[in-house]
Amino acid sequence: MNCSVEDCEREARNGGMCWTHRKRQQRGRSLLAPIRQYDPRETLERAGRDLADADTSEEADAEFERRRKRLAMAALRFALRKRRPQCPRTR
Ligand SMILES: [Zn+2]
User: How many angstroms does the Cα of residue 86 sit away from the middle of ligand 1?
Assistant: First the structure.
């Protein structure tokens, strides 16, 4: 059975809704906003570009470190992407 939200083709879990829409309802968020697809490859590529574009002057150290950490996290998620195909957060 599919999710009860219009145009959503995800599988319903409890309450007649998919996991994402159920969570949205619980948090009082809009059910009609599009569900963003998490794409590990795209996120990794964007993080890599952001780091390459980062200002390397000393004043920008904090920002550079923030981008470096984001790239490290994106690389980890990319590396792990096929090991947890059932995790709804990464779909
Ligand atoms: Zn749904």
Answer: 16
